[in-house]
Amino acid sequence: MEINKTWQLTNYNGSHIVNVCENDDSQAEKLTNYLLEGLQNNEAVVVIANRSLRKALLSKLNVKSLDVQA
């Protein structure tokens, strides 16, 4: 396994995803896109993250015109 590749592991229902990211920026970008897709499909999303990742997500979502404070 090369460290720079992204691997996804899903269960049969596809309700769990594991992503291994190269760095914090990559993690925030991938998670932002994943959250946006879920929200645009009217799905509930839950994020459990440390403070720096939460801050990065809020910033990236705001840049994409999603008012996460509302």
Q: Which descriptors would you attach to this protein?
A:
2 strands; 70 residues; single chain; 2 helices; 43% helix; mainly alpha; two-stranded antiparallel ribbon; disordered N terminus
Give a description of the structure.
The chain has 70 residues and is mostly helical. It has one domain. 43% of the residues lie in helices and 9% in strands. The chain is built from 2 helices and 2 strands. A two-stranded antiparallel sheet has the order 1-2. Strand 1 and strand 2 (17-19) form a beta hairpin. Helix 1 (24-40) packs across helix 2 (51-63).
Rg, alpha carbons: 13 Å
Helical fraction equals 40-55%
Summarize model confidence as the mean pLDDT.
Answer: 78
- Largest beta-sheet details: 2 strands, antiparallel
Q: How many DSSP-defined strands?
A: 2
The arrangement of helices and strands along the chain is: EEHH
Strand content: 5-15%
Distance between the termini: 41 Å
CA-based shape: globular
Number of domain units? 1
Strand order of the largest sheet: 1-2
> Helical region count?
2
Structural class: mainly alpha
As residue ranges, the low-confidence spans are 1-5
